[in-house]
Amino acid sequence: MGGTRFVGVLAVQRLLDAGHEVSVFHRGSRQPDWTGNVRSVLGDRNNPADLARLAEGRFDTVLDLSAYTGDQTASLLAALPDVGRWVHCSTVNVVRPSPVLPWPEEIDYGPHPLWGNYAIDKIACERAIQNARAGAHSVIIRLPLVLGPLNFIPREEFVLNRILDGAQILLPGDGQAVHQYIYRDHAAEALARAVDLPGEGFDVYNVASKRCNTSLEGFVDVCAEILGRPAYTRTVGGGPTGEDRATFNNADCVFPFSNENTILAIDKAERAGLVSPFMDIREMIAAAYDALLAHPERRQWTRTDAEQRVLARLDTVEARS
Prior knowledge:
Elements: H1 7-17, E1 22-26, E2 38-42, H2 48-52, E3 61-64, H3 70-79, E4 85-91, H4 116-132, E5 137-143, E6 145-147, H5 155-164, E7 169-171, E8 178-183, H6 184-194, E9 202-206, E10 213-215, H7 216-227, E11 233-235, H8 267-271, H9 281-294, H10 305-320
Helix pairs in contact: 1-6, 3-4, 5-7, 7-9
């Protein structure tokens, strides 16, 4: 389900390379150039008539990369009730944060207010699978922040573009919260391997790239190191979002990561063979930089509304003082 952008494109290719026959259900807005025979099923997963066409096929496994609400997951489960294994791509944001790090798979569900409806809806996806597939094998892959060239959430480019243009980078809070990352290719590999995992029942794996953690400030420092240019940063307070907002918004943020620790325990996934060999975060960001240079249209950027609001507030405070 999905599979035509970013991590999904690579996951489909990994499945093909492993000898699987793959059908991809998507809306047809993109057509990746996979090496291998892929059957496309065009449709909108929110349309029951489109989902009904899937029931005409015979599938051993569902790999769901595009479920964002419990209703979307429940509708697909109803359309394909007899699939042997179900693999769902989830997120660290479904858990209730604990001050004790890292967080194991057994940690309680949130939702955490910082992640708003996104967390509520992704929790509903996991619960729908657990409730509908009692006894059947279901694999939940929880990912942290994903990095990689041409990231559809421009995390690396947010920082790289500002450094390249000598623009100040605003860090929410004190900029010292530590985040964990997974490289695009590592996430794809884990999802593809998950379809062959042995087991039964509802099984959760935290998957991240090995030893790939930085603070917000540290992430900027690594980007500056790759570019060989100075980074101009400024901490702005305002809690995890930089504006004391209750919810973090990827589309309107002061910085592309919140100032709140998110670290998963990945021991279980490593024992299951889902964790890729170590790759330095410098290599990850260098690959994103190369892709940025190859796509000059992505060098065009503007301040987010959140940045502009914070800068205006800071200017007002400085003027008064």
